[in-house]
Design brief:
271 residues, 6-stranded mixed β-sheet, two-stranded antiparallel sheet, 13 helices, binds uracil
């Protein structure tokens, strides 16, 4: 028979990261209350039929889920900016509690590869294999990425690989805009500490977040852009995500064209 723990893990795996309360929460009342209280939610929630004494403050009722607010991104920014090197940034991110994704993730997936290589690949967020191993791009998409790197004479000794989001979203769901904003200071500081000569943005999510645009990846890919952080500006090539290429192999030729442009720039920089 399955243990309760295994069943709970199955739910988390499927993307259920918030427990139901004993008493139903009226989410409409909650959002109305939070609207009135401004962005920083300290709302009290109440089911329509609940007696008055059963009111539960959101912050204590939600022990199972951190409710991030504008303050979490600010806390992340201060923490990230205090990192003087990559090891400090890794430790700060591992200790950070302001993002709900961390609660269900098994590992903080920081990075892999060579930070001195001058080439930084940035994906979206870890998947199941990455979460288990604590390393980015080690699943099927990662194996394809390794083959793509090899095609332009790169490998994990000659490139550095990370993600915008360091914690696996449960069930591989798309990170919410709020989760992305909370994690943004970490990837921005990461870029500032690595100081790559060139960044390759893997997929629409990474490209949109770091180029601060709403344009889709098909419009962005293949064109040199700039990733700007508070203290740096780096040449960047947006391209298709390897996981997408596994589903749409006919589009590999587009990614190949983008990778050739990266190879050409690296040749110019080293030549
Ligand atoms: N997809 C990503 O964007 N990053 C990973 O690390 C793995 C899959």
């Amino acid at each position: 028979m399955q243990s309760a723990r295994e069943i709970l893990e199955w739910y988390v795996e499927a993307g259920v990261d918030v427990m139901l309360e004993d008493v139903a929460i009226n989410r409409f009342a909650e959002s109305e209350a939070s609207r009135q209280a401004g962005k920083r939610t300290k709302a009290f929630t109440e089911a329509k039929s609940e007696p008055k004494q059963a009111r539960v403050p959101l912050e204590t009722s939600a022990q199972s889920a951190h409710i991030p607010d504008a303050g979490s991104a600010e806390t992340a920014r201060e923490a990230a900016n205090s990192a003087k090197d990559l090891e400090a940034l890794r430790n700060i991110m591992s200790a950070f509690t302001g993002c709900n994704l961390k609660r269900t993730a098994k590992n903080t997936v920081f990075a892999d590869g060579n930070p001195h290589s001058g080439v930084m690949f940035i994906g979206e967020a870890p998947g199941r294999d990455e979460d288990l191993q604590g390393l980015p791009f080690v699943g099927r998409a990662g194996q394809l990425l390794d083959r793509m790197l090899s095609a332009i004479n790169l490998d994990r000794e000659k490139a550095y690989i990370t993600n915008v989001i360091p914690w696996r979203p449960p069930g591989n769901r798309t990170p919410t805009p709020q989760e992305t904003e909370i994690c943004r200071p970490f990837i921005e500081r990461h870029i500032e500490l690595v100081k790559p000569k060139v960044i390759i943005l893997l997929g629409g999510s990474s490209a949109k977040t770091l180029l601060q645009t709403k344009d889709g990846i098909m419009r962005l890919r293949g064109k040199w852009s700039e990733v700007e952080t508070p203290h740096s500006q780096t040449k960047a090539m947006p391209t298709l995500h390897p996981a997408y290429l596994l589903r749409q192999p006919a589009h590999k030729k587009l990614a190949w064209q983008d990778f050739l442009k990266v190879r050409q720039l690296l040749n110019e920089l080293s030549g």
